[in-house]
Amino acid sequence: MSCIRFNTRAQRQAMRDHSPGILTAEQAAVLHPAPQFTESKLRRLRLLATDPNPKIREAVASSYNTPEDLFLELANDPDEGVRGCVAKNEATPCDILRSLASDRSETVRGWVAVNYSVPADVMEKLANDRSRTVRSLVKWKAQLAEEESTLERAGEPALQP
Length: 161
Fold this sequence. Notes:
Layout: H1 9-17, H2 25-31, H3 39-48, H4 54-62, H5 68-75, H6 80-88, H7 94-100, H8 106-114, H9 120-126, H10 132-153
């Protein structure tokens, strides 16, 4: 699941100052490896994707292990929350994000806009979205990218998504 970051410069500096005691994602993965993804787990995801409870389908849509055909099925789910979880999942294939950029729900399109994995052509489309909120999210994400680029040029480490 993706996270939106609202860290100030002071907070980022504090995180850098305390970083010797903080594990990197790679170090944490070595210490706490994810369980192996098996055929049994894939069958379970497929079963859960058909559950009548949309919150269960949201969990499948949020999984990095969801296969492309299930992402496609869940991207067409009648529940906005399920489609939103597909839209914000960084493992969602680009073509599915492209289709969700035209979703009838402003919330789903907004989640597409803040997904770090969304292709540039989709961002260009969303920059002209009919929703002021979606356009604002596109602008905000562009400002974050510019700030990160400025920090990198200044020699400060960029904050990883």
